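S1.2 Input.
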Amino acid sequence: MLLANGKTLQIIWLLLIIVAGYFIYSLDDQVTLYKENGVLENLQVSILLLTCFYMVIVGKQLQCRSRYAAWMFAWICLAFFFREFDIRKTDWPEFAHMIFGKPGQYIWFLPLLFILVQIFRNIQFYLRNILLYLLSPMMLNIILAGVMLIMAAVFDKQMILTENKFWEEYLEIAAYAHLFLAAILARSSFRNIEIKAT
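S1.3 Output.
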């Protein structure tokens, strides 16, 4: 039932992304949308931050082993946030520049160390149940997001020549949208794993 619901949501989500992409691509003024710090980039960082905060909350509601996996997901979203968001190009207060810019970004590695220690302490559990994680609706969306990010990198590195950055930005936002969908499915996916885990 959970897997079926995940697949249905994934299909609906993918169709929405394709339809939205078609309408954006049909616009006369695409440049305003995909330019640096434009609408698409701002939407990307908003989705990533929202996904990160949501996964922190989900993690707090789960048992210990699933909690650390959820928090690892949250941290990965935070890392992507820092990749996409350049605070130097904003007029935010100096305090925000210290937290979200360099060298303040390195503070965010402290939670990662804590999460990694907890994951390695429970590594036998994760390895024993790896198939449950890989086949969960949450993970299927994470994998799809990864494929889209690889495709976006192909356009970014100009391995496929295009006249503008539309496809790179569009694939990135589609990938982050799938990370958000994975977050929506995370609570039920993790609880299903906890029930079936050995």
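S1.4 Remarks. The chain has ten helices and no strands.
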